[in-house]
Amino acid sequence: MLIVFAGLPGVGKTTLARGLAAQLRAVHLRIDSIEQALASCSLQISPAEDAGYCVGYAVAEENLRLGLTVVANSVNPVELTRSAWRDTARRAEAPVKDVEVVCSDPIEHRRRVEERSADGTGLRLPSWQDVLDRHYDPWAGDRFVLDTAGRAPEVCLRDLLEHLGGDRIQA
Question: What fold, for 2-163?
Answer without folding.
Answer: Rossmann fold (3.40.50)
